[in-house]
Amino acid sequence: MLIRVRHTLEYTYDRPVFIEPTTIRLTPRQDPTQRVHEHALRILPEPAGATWSIEQDGSAARECWFAGEHDRLLIECSSMVETLRDNPFDAIITHEPASSLPVSYPAEIAAALAPNLVCERSRAVEEWSRSIAEASGRQTLAFLSNLTNQIFSDCSMEVREEGEPQSAAETLSSKHGACRDVAVLFIDACRAQGLAARFVSGYSIHGPPEITEQELHAWAEVYLPGAGWRGYDPSLGLATSDGHVPLVSAPSYGLAAPTTGSFRGTGAQSGMSYSIRLETDEVENRA
Question: Which is it for strands 156-157 and 217-224: parallel, antiparallel or unpaired?
Fold first, then answer.
C-alpha cells in the first residue's frame, strides 16, 4: 500500500525568542516493512545549520540550530511510503524459551535489549499482566493477542494533544487515555513477563470512531526471536501491518517524540498547532 503523509507543525511565540537546537523525528523509518519513495522537510526560519543523525535505534533525525530571534518555528514534512507487511503473523519464534512466559532471551540478545526490559514495577500492573498470561496458557503469542484485545476492550480512548503519557498504573486504574497512554500500559505489561517492548511514534490509516481528525499515533513493538520487532496497537486492538507507518521507536516515549527542543525568552509564552493528512493508494494503481 502507498501512503502519502503531509504533516505540518508550527510553534508560535508571543515575542521573539532564541530557538535552541532542535531534533526533528518526522522521517519515516526505512526497513523490511516499508520503503520510503519520497521525503521532503521544510523548516522556517531557515536553520543556521543542520545535519542528519542516526539515533540509538537506527532512526533518522534532523538536527537543526538557529541564529537570532524568531517568533515562530514551522516544520512541514511530506512523505510517500510503501508499506510492505500485509501479514503481521508471518513468522515463528525460533528460540524456544521465548515462546512461553516469562520469556527468556539468549544472553547476547538480552544484553542488547536491556533498555527495553525496564518497567516501572507497579504491583497492580504486574498482577494484571500475570492474570492475562495465565489465561493465555503462558504462551507468548496468545498473551500478546489477548493483551492487545484486553486493553482495547477495557480502555476508552481520548485525544490529548500535549503532555507526557500517564503511568501504566494510572491508565490501568482509570481505564481511559490517549494512544500513548495505552501503549505505555501495553509495554509495561509485556516487560513484566520478560518481553522486550518499545514505544513507537508514527501514523495509522486506521482510526477509532471517536477520532475525527488525523493525528500522530503511538503503539508498541515487541521483540520475538525469529520474528524480530513486531507491532501491536492496543488503541485499535490489532497487530500492525501495512496500515501503520512508523517514524521512530525507542525504549521510552521521550526518545520517540516527533520533535525535541526548547527556547529562551524572558516571559515568553508558546503555542502549538498542527495538521496531518494521510492519503492511500494501492501500489498497482500508482502512475
Answer: unpaired
CA distances to 16, 187, 198, 237 from 207, rounded to whole Å, are 38, 21, 21, 11
pTM over 0.85: yes
If we measure between CA atoms, which residue out of 6, 11, 5, 23 comes closest to residue 257?
Answer: 23
Contact call for residues 218 and 233 (beta carbons, < 8 A): no
pLDDT in tens, 122-147: 999 999 999 999 999 999 999 999 99
Fold of 96-241: C8orf32 fold (3.10.620)
* Cα distance between residue 198 and residue 190, in whole Å: 10
Rounded-to-integer distance, Cα 224 and Cα 93, Å:
6
- In CATH terms, 2-84+258-285 corresponds, of 3.40.50.970, 2.30.130.10, 3.30.465.10, 2.60.40.2250, to 2.60.40.2250
Paired strand residues for 76: 8, 42
